Amino acid sequence: MRFDLQTDVPEAFKAVSRLEGVAQQAVGDDTLYLLVKTRASMLNGCAFCVDMHAAHLAEGGEDWRRIVAVSTWRESVFFTPAERAALALTDEVTRLGEHGVTEAVWSDAVEHHGREGAAHLVVAIATINVWNRLAVAGQKPAPAL
Fold first, then answer.
1. What pLDDT is attached to residue 97?
2. In this predicted structure, what is the pLDDT of residue 12?
3. Secondary structure (DSSP) of the chain
4. How far is CA 39 from CA 42, 74, 79, in A?
5. pLDDT at 99
């Protein structure tokens, strides 16, 4: 591991942890929150975070097929329209191309989660993207089986 944020940069760790707490509380739905975190972590190639969030989903009783299907959510029948809107928003905020988040994806997120709920999801997505970038840059390994 290149660095450990918690011990090498403790003030940054505390700040991101505080943001994490705000994001989690704001989203409110733990399953949705973990689906979003798992999807962003998959897109960012963060093995540590994928492992952690998938494990949390499983511990919460989530069906293993839905956990695996997060990687192919567009083709899956396992997600509700509200979850699909959140996952689409996750994809666009995480990949954040030249044109940002499309109006169609934003409108769908607002339709299913309300304006405030969609904004909360963006904060949650931004937060997991911070964690992913820190873990990948620091080469934080997933725990052994």
1. 87
2. 96
3. ----HHHHSHHHHHHHHHHHHHHHHHH--HHHHHHHHHHHHHHHT-HHHHHHHHHHHHHTT--HHHHHHGGGGGG-SSS-HHHHHHHHHHHHHHH--TT-S-HHHHHHHHHHHHHHHHHHHHHHHHHHHHHHHHHHHTTPPPPP-
4. 5, 12, 13
5. 87
The CA-atom distances, in angstroms, between 60 and each of 41, 97, 103, 138 are: 18, 33, 33, 28
Residue 21's nearest CA partner among 145, 92, 127 is 127
User: Which residues of the chain, if any, have pLDDT below 70?
Assistant: none
Q: Nearest CA to 123 among 20, 28, 42, 32?
A: 20
Q: Which of 89, 92, 143 is nearest to 121 (CA)?
A: 89
- Residue by residue, DSSP assigns 60-83 as TT--HHHHHHGGGGGG-SSS-HHH
Residue 72 to residue 67: CA distance in whole angstroms? 10
Q: What is the pTM of this model?
A: 0.95
Token digits of residue 90: 């996750």
The span from the CA of 83 to the CA of 67, in Å, is 13
